[in-house]
Specification:
Elements (H helix, E strand, L loop, with lengths): L1 E9 L5 H12 L3 E9 L12 H6 L1 E3 L8 H5 L3 H14 L2 H4 L3 E5 L1 H12 L7 E5 L2 H8 L3 H4 L1 H6 L2 E4 L2 H10 L6 E3 L21 E6 L8 H14 L5 E6 L5 H10 L6 E5 L3 H10 L2 E3 L15 H9 L2 E5 L4 H4 L7 E3 L4 H13 L1 H18 L2 H17 L5 H12 L11
Parallel strand pairs: 1-2, 1-4, 2-3, 4-5, 5-6, 6-7, 8-9, 8-11, 9-10, 11-12, 12-13
EC number: 2.4.-.-
Organism: Mesorhizobium abyssinicae
Pfam families: Glyco_transf_4, Glycos_transf_1
């Protein structure tokens, strides 16, 4: 069976979940084709090792030899740009029509495929996976239904990385029978669990993220400043790993809050150094917020990795994060932008290392049982296989039948081998 992935830029280090899903299908005997707008030359990605070498060998620009005019098309007025882009998509749809199923990562790529379905230039069923900004920003701008009108009518299956986003799509008019949650996950086998108490030692707090508004690092700094004022006896330090447009502002804020000697901005670090820093840390802090433009997290992979490694996760009631972290059971949550409550959570963790060990163990189990990449890739492979079996049905019949697939009432052996 051949699966065609439609993505924007490939490969991206910030979207390893896309390559991991492709690799999961390769491991299960699927053929994978990748169609993208831009092939990224990221020196941090090992392009020679498997499965990346195989994936790159099967990756092509969507517009093939016409890819060079993309910048010209991008500068056209919106209406004309859409018509020219869609026409070029139609011309080069042949490669995708050799596939049994199309998987579009991010809503805009799914909508692009849906336009081809509308004009009957694309034959295979289309799975669209929504991750974050592709749902949250148009929802904030009240254009979700308009932006994805094609998917509402012609998309076969819409997967969201959390239940919160599924609710937004349902409100926009997508069919409940064709919209469900499919989490992204991690390979916990590659992350060794290690519990180390901070009793009698400084509490080491760490954040690993891009320094953008939705990560909430501003509120991490403000909460730690409040902790320092209310609990001067607690010894802690805070390492921030990552770079981004807000770095200078955050460094300035740390100085204004009097945290210069206790907060270190480490910038972007090599992967092995990030792993070493995480092994030395006790608490992973990510107080995510809804950005001013409406951008939101899905469920951050960084939280999953920290929980798998044995760190205590402290985050916020934001988007899909409560699907990963149950307050006081698998981690600690505060309302968005609530500095006082966040500082209180940090104080409790700092003063109760013995009680936190049970929380860390529960967090590891949560990741292993519900955010296990191998298990999720197996489920995705079954979805793809069964969707291909239903590919020839008309839309209404397919939606009814696929609802049975998602609830497990349609046997897996209905699919062709």
């Amino acid at each position: 069976m051949r699966v065609g992935f439609v993505v924007g830029e490939f490969p991206l280090l910030s979207e390893t979940f896309v390559a991991d899903q492709m690799a999961g299908l390769l491991e299960r005997g699927f053929e994978v084709e990748v169609v993208c707008d831009r092939m990224k030359g990221d020196d941090r990605i090992d392009r020679q090792s498997e499965p990346m070498a195989t994936l790159l060998a099967r990756t092509r620009h969507w517009w093939s030899w016409a890819a060079g005019i993309r910048e010209f098309v991008r500068r056209l007025p919106p209406g004309l740009r859409y018509k020219v882009s869609t026409a070029l998509d139609m011309v080069f749809a042949r490669r995708l029509n050799r596939c049994d199923v199309i998987v579009a990562h991010f809503g805009q790529n799914g909508e692009r495929a849906a336009a081809l379905k509308k004009w009957k230039f694309l034959k295979p069923p289309v799975i669209t996976i929504f991750h974050g900004a592709d749902v949250a920003i148009p929802s904030r701008q009240a254009v979700l239904a308009t932006q994805y009108a094609g998917l509402i009518k012609h998309g076969t299956l819409n997967l969201t990385v959390n239940d919160f986003f599924r609710g937004l799509l349902l409100e926009a008019g997508m069919s409940p029978a064709s919209t469900t949650v499919h989490h992204m996950g991690i390979d916990a086998r590659e992350i060794s669990y290690r519990w180390e108490s901070w009793e009698g030692t400084p509490l080491i707090v760490t954040t690993v993220c891009r320094l953008v508004e939705k990560k909430g690092v501003e509120f991490a700094l403000r909460a730690l400043a409040a902790l320092a004022a209310s609990h001067p006896q607690i010894d802690w330090r805070y390492d921030i790993i990552g770079d981004g447009p807000l770095r200078m502002d955050l460094e300035r804020l740390a100085a204004e809050l009097g945290l210069t000697g206790r907060v270190t901005f480490l910038g972007s670090l090599p992967h092995m150094e990030v792993k070493r820093r995480l092994r030395a840390a006790h608490l992973f802090l990510l107080p995510s917020i809804t950005a001013s433009n409406g951008d939101m997290e899905g469920i951050p992979v960084a939280l999953m990795e920290a929980m798998a490694a044995g760190l205590i996760a402290v985050s916020t009631v934001h988007s899909g994060i409560p699907e990963l972290i149950q307050d006081l059971e698998t981690g600690f949550l505060a309302p968005e932008r609530d500095v006082s409550t966040l500082a209180g959570k940090l104080a409790w963790v700092a003063e109760h290392p013995k009680e936190c060990e049970a929380v860390a163990l529960a967090a590891r189990r949560k990741v292993e049982e519900e955010f296990n990449a191998d298990m999720l890739n197996e489920r995705f492979a079954q979805i793809v296989t069964q969707l291909a079996a239903l590919g020839s049905a008309n839309e209404s019949t397919r939606h009814i039948s696929f609802a049975k697939v998602l609830t497990g009432s349609l046997p897996a052996d209905t699919a062709p081998q």
